[in-house]
Amino acid sequence: MFARKSKFWLKQQSRRQWRRYLTWFFGLLLVFLIINLVWRATVFINFLGKPFQELPGKLSHSDGVNIDKRVNILLFSLSEDNKVKEAVVAFYKGEDKVLSFFPIYPDTHVRFSDGTWGKIEDLYQEGEKEFSNGLGYLAHGVGEILAVPVDSYVAFTGRSFEEGLLTEKSLRGAHQDLKSPLFFLDLLELKSWGEGYFRTSFSLGELMKLVLSLRGVRYDRLNYLDAEKLVQEVVLDDRKFTTFNQDALDSLTSEVLSEAQVVAEGASVGIRNSTQVSGLGGRVSRFVTRLGGRVAQVGNAEEPSEETLINNYGGKDYTAERIQRALGVGRVIKPLSTEPSKEDILIILGKDYQEQFSTSRK
Question: What is residue 245's DSSP assignment?
């Protein structure tokens, strides 16, 4: 009887051990499965976050991208010899779901704040040759025309893209294509093999977020601005330049480029240039006005400053932060001084902005 019991208990113990082994085995298998899934998820997340292949060079204002609020995107195509074939700036107000396109004609000229002229068609090529930053030079030229910072870009290069890629008809058609369920597969396809001719500072994840947001833009809130009537010829030093009429441009784009929250805050803005470079205050004044701010006064600072400071006296937080993002340098401070200020926001342009301005094409 005891022998039978011992055999019985031995069998039970053996079964328990096997169950324990199987439990450990499946537990380890589950752990390895979870680790594998986490690793693959991490790889996928990194894949989403990694930018597409970018063009050489850099943008001065790439840290200011905010798809939920406002983003200015430079769309352009390049020939094989780095000539700009087409260029359009897309202004997207995410909170209002309004998308506007402004064409920049390749044969138009831009006059930089230092008095030099450049032809849009040649800016990328010249920037690569002289400064090794064709992207920055082109973005700087477009920014000078429209008085807005370029936050990001999408570039099409090579023979695969024909003329007419960025016309009104093509862009409206592309907006309709965004609603196709296969569009995200197209993005993944571009990510995997399209890096040779599709280049952007957006990551795949940012592009997906942008596409989802753009899907909500109604057809009647998609605008293609008529820039042709703004083009004029000017003669300087017996040379003819085709350029934009700035007064007409301001009138056409003021509503498109202004931001509702900046307008609502109604901040008065003062600008003081503490650098030795003349014209910077006027340049920033155009930036602020384009955003919807009200410039009260532009002048020179009493003493030089190494750092650009945005003094927020009036508690206009959104406007102050938006100006900082537009400038690309400096910081917002709330002065402790109880001395009254004539302006809600006082901008002191420092050496860091001067250096950015002087090297934005380098």
Answer: -
